Recover the amino acids of this structure.
């Protein structure tokens, strides 16, 4: 059976893309696939979330260090194996590595970053998106899938439905929340700075309703923050999915801000407060209205937070994530599936969109190959 290697960057700070690569490998391992996260830096392990995915190391797959000859690897990669590259991987590094295998898949978690490293202009000499070895693109939202199908109509595009851990990001009713509002200090910090300056002139509003600012923090700390938070400010810009939005909604937060494309489906008006992208004034006004509403009559906010959490439980559960991963790889591999995966897919055929699957016990974390 073909093995599946997910090439993965190393990161010293919490990064959603790395976490989701590990999650996909965990699911594949659980259902009998020989799959591994493949790092170029020996002994690297992300520290900000728990994981039990199979891990492999090979210096040929380092993101930036000089690359050894393709034949001088630490692991033996066979032609029938699959190499899965993230959308950010430099094409001049993918090209020589693609000679190792007959099958390439691109796991594109940020469609709007596609052309940063893979400019498909007519004078391009090589692109993984036009390689005859590329079998499919995996992506993470309807918005990204539409983008990629439009740009690469010759390739199958499969959407992986990110799952939210309902035990970690557990729902908490609005009445039990301690913090009025929270924002994560990200690349959109200048947007939030303007919002805070605008609100600071609104008659003591911020003195009465402190907005908590969080930087990149471990998953458990982020979950605890969302469970304390009534309103979550989000300034999405060309997003692949918007993982913090889904996690905040799971905890019962009312999310207000710009969906950034990838979070459009999450931030529908019945379960969030979407604002026109870039409209800082409208965002500040919406935050003010929500804070005032919370102090006068929190019931409408409580109901919206409850609807948001219910949507995440139904559409973005861990079961739904596993289901989407297995269905995508079944489409790529055809009949070459492990027995456990085939049995799970047979279960799906008789269930609705929210049906749970019976998962075998997860394997121990290990390093292989």
């Amino acid at each position: 059976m073909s093995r599946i290697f997910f090439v993965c960057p190393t990161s010293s700070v919490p990064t959603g893309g790395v976490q989701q690569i590990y999650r996909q490998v965990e699911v594949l391992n659980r259902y009998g696939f020989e799959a591994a996260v493949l790092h170029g830096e020996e002994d690297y392990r992300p520290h900000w979330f728990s994981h039990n995915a199979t891990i492999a190391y090979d210096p040929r797959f380092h993101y930036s260090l000089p690359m050894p000859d393709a034949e001088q690897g630490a692991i033996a990669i066979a032609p029938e194996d699959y190499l899965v590259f993230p959308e950010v991987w430099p094409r001049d590094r993918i090209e020589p590595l693609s000679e190792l295998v007959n099958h390439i898949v691109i796991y594109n978690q940020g469609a709007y970053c596609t052309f940063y490293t893979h400019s498909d202009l007519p004078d391009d000499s090589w692109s993984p998106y036009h390689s005859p070895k590329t079998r499919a693109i995996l992506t993470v939202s309807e918005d990204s899938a539409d983008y990629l199908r439009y740009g690469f109509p010759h390739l199958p595009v499969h959407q992986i439905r990110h799952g939210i851990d309902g035990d970690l990001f557990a729902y908490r009713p609005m009445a039990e929340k301690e913090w009025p509002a929270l924002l994560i200090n990200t690349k959109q910090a200048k947007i939030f700075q303007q919002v805070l300056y605008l609100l600071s002139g609104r008659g003591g509003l911020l003195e009465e309703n402190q907005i908590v600012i969080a930087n990149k923090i471990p998953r458990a700390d982020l979950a605890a923050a969302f469970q304390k938070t009534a309103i979550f400010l989000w300034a999405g810009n060309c997003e692949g999915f918007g993982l913090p939005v889904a996690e905040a909604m799971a905890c019962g937060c009312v999310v207000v801000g710009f969906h950034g494309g990838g979070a459009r489906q999450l931030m529908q008006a019945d379960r969030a407060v979407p604002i026109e992208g870039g409209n800082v004034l409208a965002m500040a006004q919406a935050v003010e209205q929500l804070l005032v509403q919370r102090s006068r009559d929190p019931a409408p906010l409580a109901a919206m937070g409850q609807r948001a959490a219910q949507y995440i439980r139904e559409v973005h559960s861990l079961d739904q994530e596993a289901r989407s991963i297995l269905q995508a790889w079944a489409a790529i591999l055809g009949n070459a599936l492990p027995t456990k995966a085939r049995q799970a897919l047979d279960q799906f055929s008789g269930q609705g969109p929210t049906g749970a699957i019976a998962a075998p016990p997860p394997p121990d974390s290990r390093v292989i190959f």
Summary: The longest strand covers residues 229-239. Residues 4-163+317-348 form a domain with the Rossmann fold fold (CATH 3.40.50.11930).
